[in-house]
Specification:
With about 350 residues, this protein is an alpha/beta fold. The protein has helices at about 5-20, 30-40, 45, 60-65, 65-75, 85-90, 100-105, 115-125, 140-145, 160-165, 180-185, 205-220, 240-250, 275-280, 280-285, 295-300, 335-340, and strands at about 25-30, 50-60, 80-85, 110, 130, 150-155, 155, 175, 195-200, 225, 250-255, 260-270. It folds into 3 domains: about 5-60 and about 160-225, Rossmann fold (3-Layer(aba) Sandwich), CATH 3.40.50; about 60-155 and about 235-285, HypD, alpha/beta domain 2 (Rossmann fold), CATH 3.40.50.11740; about 295-340, no CATH class. The structure holds iron/sulfur cluster (SF4).
């Protein structure tokens, strides 16, 4: 049951503030979970004409680089058992995907929890866990590293990507910051990004309130972060999880699909003996650079285009037959637009 009174109050506030600001305003929601709710509840349609919401790079499956996908496929092809979460199996590599290698070789494993990976390690001592995601899922991978499981990490850190987006080709006036990531990193880490930001929860009410809070910041020219998800997000975040991340990972430059190489934006396995990229360097170094395809995920992730602007969208690229990462995951913009778009 939606809280109509609450929503009406904030919509009125949004209207007043947008008239006061009196120019076009573009807000980016970083997280795919927010995009899903925004599309599902038609939040874009109820905002004033001069306020736009665009999707950002908050789908972990989507931002993993093509080269990393190809490298993990190559490991599996070389008889190294690989375990990862379901969506990663369907992300197209340059020639294959992990699902195909799973069917052909039987040494790719779809898992739902760290417990399953630990059980697999008993049977396959050389198993490599393909660790994907932002600060939210990285602590689980850190736990696997503690259990001496070898990891190919493409874990990413959100704030450095936000800084890149501010100076990118799309004019952004404010960010709706990701709620789940913020539960781990807290509020403090966003403070060095001097830009209007609101951390939001995931109900339509919370997102609409987040938009009104952002417009308030913009109307007052305040470049700061406000926590609009106090129910869950603490100022210092989850300190235990952060300690675990610091212990098991080192912060390195990382390649993002669409955004390129971003300084200090990746979590790399600190222990060389458990780092699949080092352990299997010979196999990985033989993987060629991927060729450019017609898929425009990179531009979708930067907010440069909407999924419908991609010539393959709905015609040849569908959730059943994805041609790019953004159509695979439920948090991918193309899949969300496919499900909830007009
Ligand atoms: Fe890539 Fe498909 Fe999205 Fe086009 S519609 S950008 S091919 S995922």
């Amino acid at each position: 049951m939606r809280n109509k009174k609450f929503i009406d109050t904030h919509i009125r506030k949004i209207k007043t503030l947008s008239e006061k600001i009196n120019k076009n305003i573009t807000l980016m929601e970083i997280c795919g979970g927010h995009t899903t709710v925004i599309m599902k509840y038609g939040i874009r349609e109820i905002l004033p004409d001069n306020v736009s919401l665009i999707s950002g790079p908050g789908c972990p499956v989507c931002v993993s680089s093509q080269k990393d996908i190809d490298c993990v496929i190559e490991l599996a092809k070389n008889n190294i058992p690989v375990a990862t979460y379901g969506d990663m199996l369907r992300v197209p590599g340059t020639r294959d995907n992990l699902e195909k290698i799973k069917a052909e070789s039987g040494n790719v494993f779809e898992v739902y929890s760290t417990t399953e990976v630990i059980s697999l390690k008993n049977k396959y001592p050389d198993i490599v866990f393909f660790g994907v995601g932002f600060e939210t899922t990285a602590p689980m991978t850190a736990y696997l590293l503690k259990k001496k499981i070898c990891v190919y990490s493409v874990h990413k850190i959100i704030p450095p990507a936000m800084k890149i987006l501010i100076s990118g080709n799309v004019k952004i006036d404010g960010f709706i910051n990701p709620g789940h990531v913020s539960t781990i990193i807290g509020v403090k880490e966003y403070k060095e990004i001097e830009f209007p930001q609101v951390i939001s929860g995931f109900t339509p009410e919370q997102i609409i309130r987040g938009v009104s809070m952002l417009l308030e910041l913009i109307s007052k020219n305040e470049n700061k972060v406000v926590n609009g998800y106090r129910e869950v997000v603490r100022n210092k975040g989850n300190e235990k999880a952060k300690r675990l991340l610091n212990e098991m990972f080192s912060v390195e430059d990382s390649e993002w699909r669409g955004l390129g190489n971003i300084a200090d934006s990746g979590l790399e396995v600190a222990d060389n003996g458990l780092n699949a990229k080092i352990k299997y360097d010979k196999i990985i170094s033989s993987v060629p650079e991927p060729k450019k395809t017609a898929c425009r995920c990179g531009d979708v992730l930067k907010g440069l285009i909407e999924p419908g602007d991609c010539p393959l969208y709905r015609k040849v690229c569908t959730p059943e037959n994805p041609k790019g990462a953004c159509m695979v995951s439920k948090e991918g913009s193309c899949a969300i637009y496919y499900e909830y778009g007009k």
